[in-house]
Amino acid sequence: MDAELNLSKTNFLARMSHEMRTPLNAIIGMCTIAQSSDDPKRISSCLDKINEASLHLLGMINDVLDMAKIEAGKLKLSYSELNLRQMLQKTVGMRKFTLEAKKQNLILDFDPNLPETIVSDEQRLIQVLDNLLSNAVKFTPPEGTITLSVEKTKEETSCCSLRITVSDTGIGIADEELKTIFALFEQAEGGMARKYEGSGLGLAISSSIVRLLGGEIKIFSERGKGSTFSFEITVEKAGKDEKEYFCPDNAYEFKAQRFSGFSILLAEDVEINREIVLSLLEDSGLDIDCAENGREALEKYMASPSRYDLILMDIHMPEMDGFEATRRIRAFEKNFEKNLLEFAERSCTSFTEGETRGYDRNLHKQIPIIAMTANVFKDDVKKCLSSGMTGHLGKPIEFGALMEQLSSCLSQKIPLPVS
To answer: Which residue range(s) make up the domain with 125?
Structure first.
């Protein structure tokens, strides 16, 4: 048995080496072509392909990391209240482009009696649904049909059972492949593996997540006639969710004009990472200062704490990392009056009432500090929050996530839009 497992792992690593090198080859090749071209259309085409290959590679890396946690028994869930319909719409929106590209029909069949809010792990639930939808899109021919249905099967006072089903009119799965489809290191062999690239981990990871949620994925498939994946979980019902939601597709246009007059401090030691964030925010109206390490960020903040409305803080930096810089900033804020007087004495400055209110705004209420880091596990997020940070952004930075964090942290200072 151990020999078979070791052979499966060896074959898996060989396959993953090929699968990862394929998008890397596209990224490097398209960069070379773009750098040697003066044609704007060709350069734009290269950038589109680089973006597509990068996202594909990122998905595989995330799958491998999840697989490692599953093998070590460290895949854990993080429960919170979530708006069920918003979550379902968000998941479907992630597949909108590929559905349109293949001219596939998507049917949504949502039970009208679904609870408005539930308690579950939203990130992991989205991951399962996206994996199932991704497989359906991949193995369904153009103009085929994919159906996502969610129904309430049982209800009690504080909880209810949900059955989620994804079916397609695709190529189906052979009987011999059904036996190993949820195994971690297995993937369909032969022509199918060559035609449909991927890590082969999505279904195995999804199966593990659903088991942690208290359910089991079942599959019904016939070669040439399509597949149906279904699972049922029991979830706790929550109170009405009062949060406001916005459409990620419109986030940039909606918020860029609203950040004028705000100033943020970007602490990041890698030049290209600073360039990326500055480029993403160049039309946002934000006034942005940069620091190349935690010590410089701390000094800039302490020298003028009323200047900044938010700090974007990298974690791994020379001289002083983001954790230590955050702890020192929070310590500085706790001693507001003392630090304010000492600062005034050092600079021989007498503060006006307006300037003092400026310091009070940031020091008493704490300036929002958003972590920017490639450490994206749940424990990493907890470590950031326990050090005093307000939020967490995983690298590579997603534009929508960045806009959402900025909006959330600055929302109390932003006037409501005029209808």
So the answer is: 80-237
Instruction: Supply the pTM of this predicted model.
Output: 0.58
Rounded distance between C-alpha atoms, residue 174 and residue 169, angstroms? 14
Torsion of CA 358, 364, 370, 376, to 10 degrees: 180
What would the two tokens of residue 369 be?
Answer: 């500090």
Helix (H) or strand (E) holding 298, with range, is helix 294-303
Q: Which residues pair with 289 in a beta bridge?
A: 265
Q: How many domains would you assign to the chain?
A: 3
- pLDDT higher than 80, residue 137: yes
Q: Which of 24, 40, 71 is the last residue of a domain?
A: 71
| Residue of 87, 88, 82, 118 whose CA lies nearest to 106 | 88
Residues 370, 315 contacting (CB under 8 angstroms): no
Four-residue CA torsion sign, 53, 55, 56, 60: positive
Q: Answer with the one of 31, 49, 71 that is the final residue of a domain.
A: 71
pLDDT of residue 174: 82
Sign of the four-CA dihedral 173, 179, 183, 187:
negative
Please enumerate in sequence order all residues whose Cβ is within 8 A of that of 340, keeping only pairs 6 or more positions apart, or say none. Answer: 351, 356, 359, 363
Instruction: Convert 257-274 to b/e letters by CB count within 10 Å (16 or more is b).
Output: ebbeebebbbbbbeeebb
- Write down the H helix ranges in 153-196: 175-178, 190-195
Alpha carbon distance 334, 356 (integer Å) = 16
Given this model, what pLDDT does residue 242 score?
40
Torsion of CA 235, 238, 242, 243, to 10 degrees: -40
Percent of all residues in the chain with a pLDDT value above 70, rounded to a whole number: 78
pLDDT of residue 99: 87
**Higher pLDDT among residues 379 and 102, named by residue:** 102
Express each pLDDT in 376-407 by its tens digit.
Answer: 777 788 889 999 999 999 888 888 888 888 88
H or E, element range at 46: helix 40-71
Residue 5's nearest CA partner among 185, 177, 176, 178 is: 185
Q: Are residues 292 and 336 in the same domain?
A: yes
Cα 202 versus chain centre, distance: 16
